């Protein structure tokens, strides 16, 4: 096992798990380890990861730390939001959409340094192992993948700590106790699961929430903002043009202040089990409503309904790890085509956990006030035409009704 890998690129956070994995790779495979740490907007200082990797014997030139926030939002989050993607009708896919970017960066680094393997810290029960590995194989079909949690015999936190101590891996005091729940975070969301959240009948304690205040504690006065869109992507807030990552950061702050974006969900994992997670997606929740608001006046009915039809399939592909699949790319092309005229501004009201669209304008609006007004206008719409329209649509229903009356006697 140890002889067929010479150099491996590890997705490295600097935490206990990936630090143990780093040393385990060195001792088990006898290979050179290259670390990659991505700044996805998780809100943590990343330089300690560099120092920890150096203490574990990693060469400075083999430590990669990259700020990928703008790429994450512009190339992954925004394309997904053009589809209004929700997994099982609720989940905004914050963890799912980050994995293909991390995997892509690992493969790029592997090519750069001549590594013949990649490794991740996902467990053998979760979805992330699938997402990472499907992405690796899509981008580098012959790559060797090392998934330590499926190989080693370390089955508890106590065993991880014992391994760390036996190899002089530094462990901060706050990491020695059993964590009450696990957290994954990036610029789009935070995800909490396990331990105190495992019983789905018990309400999540308030201390679980990382990125939002309770709606009950939010201001008693509503906050109004205007989000500007160009071809389906948000580009401004209250007239100020912002980069994708800066815009999402601003929406996150607004959502946090108003108690927006909490979700307590029992979902169906791709690997076959149900799991309970608490998600916080403050900015994404606002963005989704704003995007649907601008689409409501710029998308034709047929296009809008087709998008809604394919959305669950698109969301499932992302959740299951098929970002780099041809079918996701095909659906993306259709979705992006629909966004050509999704341009304009949406006025949003934020109040105690609620996001309401209260106004929308667009130079490409399909909304015609003359057509919908109850007043008689000069528009070429004859009310009498509706009779024929209704009769044609009722033809099959009338035919069925006649047959059923005959059968029923």
UniProtKB/TrEMBL annotation:
Keyword Amino-acid biosynthesis: yes
Biological processes annotated in GO: argininosuccinate metabolic process; L-arginine biosynthetic process; urea cycle
An example molecular function term from Gene Ontology annotations: argininosuccinate synthase activity
Annotated catalysed reactions: L-citrulline + L-aspartate + ATP = 2-(N(omega)-L-arginino)succinate + AMP + diphosphate + H(+)
Keyword ATP-binding: yes
Subcellular location: Cytoplasm
SUPFAM superfamilies: Adenine nucleotide alpha hydrolases-like, Argininosuccinate synthetase, C-terminal domain
Binding site for L-citrulline: 91, 96, 127, 131, 182, 191, 267, 279
Major subcellular location class: cytoplasm
Ranges where the Arginosuccinate synthase C-terminal domain occurs: 181-398
List of residues binding L-aspartate: 123, 127-128
Subunit: Homotetramer.
Entry-linked PANTHER family: ARGININOSUCCINATE SYNTHASE
Assigned protein family: Belongs to the argininosuccinate synthase family. Type 1 subfamily.
Protein name (database record): Argininosuccinate synthase
Taxonomic lineage of the native organism: Bacteria, Pseudomonadati, Pseudomonadota, Alphaproteobacteria, Hyphomicrobiales
Protein's gene: argG
